[in-house]
Design a protein that fits this description.
Helix content is 63%, strand content 0%. The chain is mostly helical. The longest helix is centred in the middle third of the chain and has 46 residues, at 124-169.
Length: 382
């Protein structure tokens, strides 16, 4: 019996070191290190459980409401797993050091970790373990409390620019619509500043989402917004601009594209998404030429200045999109992002595309104002 208890001690020591490593890699080291325990909890709790629940509903809004809880609740589940693992680890380590049995070891471990102090042992060996348990409990709770403001601060920074994009690119965001709206309101000259803002946004998201991968699963407050779809729309608009009007495109356009797919590749590394690090511009993409042609016609009809035809621009556009399309599609599918145009298919959604609707340009002196019906629900058209 004594041998079994000492085997339990070393098993507990291994659990303690493994859980401590997961805690440090997830909350302390700012290097985007992957914790296998955190990934396991995320995979079982977020991907499988919430996706299973979301599949019970056909309506996209209902799915979105359910999946909105996945990221935050996975944080609470991870904290619970850490606390439970430490509790078991210290109980196993105390087991051979106290005269009573396993239940008393659990009681001593829980009392020490939660710093309740209702159970104690006079001997130095169990006392040392209890001090370590008490310190560990305080550190875990303190780190988690400090972790949440950092996490939600990064989430708020991410969503601010995504929300601003809704008036510029529609909801869900779409690359051709972004360029079209800037032409309609005469703000094409402001696109350089927009691409500069999104270059900085991509750098910020790279740092936050690689250090705290759980942010990938945090959904936008509005069901028609998604950080993945927003980034894809900005990159598509930049690629179209460079392909169709390379001389007029601002210098920030190319920089935004480069930072955008660099950010996606870094996030793919921590989420386990495979990708080609050096794709050839001649390789095939999933978006077909007919869809691209429809986007070009949309721009031309609104007066966008084209230096090239769609046929001439297609190789350049494809050469840009091959750098980010597969990762964006994988992230959109993984997070069940809103199915906008040019965003790929969804495993957990029916074959549907939500097209952004442009709000009516109403004016008080327009005699046709009353002839145009009011929108019953802005932003939805399947």
């Amino acid at each position: 019996m004594a041998a079994i208890r000492w085997i339990g001690f070393f098993v507990g020591l291994v659990i303690f070191l493994g859980t401590l490593s997961s805690l440090v890699r997830t909350l302390v080291v700012p290097r985007g290190l992957t914790s296998k325990l955190a990934l396991l909890v995320n995979r079982l709790f977020t991907r499988h459980l919430f996706l299973w629940l979301a599949r019970r509903f056909d309506d996209y809004e209902a799915k979105d409401r359910i999946l909105a809880f996945a990221g935050p609740l996975s944080l609470l589940m991870l904290l619970s797993v850490w606390m439970f693992s430490f509790w078991m680890a210290f109980a196993l380590m105390l087991w051979p050091l106290i005269p009573l049995g396993w239940l008393e070891a659990l009681r001593e471990s829980g009392s020490s970790m939660l710093t309740l102090g209702f159970a104690s042992q006079p001997d130095w060996a169990p006392t040392a373990v209890m001090f370590v348990a008490a310190t560990t409990g305080l550190i875990v709770v303190a780190l988690q409390v400090a972790y949440l403001p950092t996490l939600y601060g990064a989430f708020n920074r991410r969503e601010s620019l995504v929300t601003l994009l809704q008036s510029r690119a529609g909801a869900p965001a779409w690359g051709p619509e972004l360029l079209t709206r800037h032409v309609v309101v005469g703000l094409v000259d402001n696109l350089g500043q927009l691409y500069l803002d999104w270059e900085e946004w991509a750098a910020d998201v790279t740092e936050s989402h690689t250090n705290y991968p759980v942010l990938v699963w945090f959904r936008s407050p509005h069901p028609l917004r998604s950080w993945v779809i927003a980034l894809l729309a900005v990159l598509d608009s930049a690629a179209m601009y460079l392909a169709l009007s390379p001389n007029a495109a601002p210098t920030q356009t190319r920089l935004c594209l480069r930072m955008g797919f660099t950010a996606l590749r870094n996030i793919a590394d921590v989420t386990g998404i495979p990708y080609d690090p050096d794709p050839l511009p001649t390789e095939d993409i999933e978006l077909d030429y007919e869809d691209f042609l429809g986007g070009v016609h949309r721009l031309r009809d609104q007066g966008f200045q084209l230096e090239r035809s769609a046929e001439e621009a297609w190789p350049d556009f494809k050469g840009w999109r091959v750098n980010y399309e597969s990762i964006c599609y994988a992230l959109a599918d993984m997070t069940v992002a809103v199915p906008g145009p040019w965003t790929g298919s969804r495993t957990h959604l029916s074959d549907v595309t939500i097209v952004p609707e442009r709000p009516a340009n109403r004016r008080p002196d327009d005699p046709r104002e009353e002839e145009e019906p009011k929108a019953t629900r802005f932003g939805w058209r399947v």
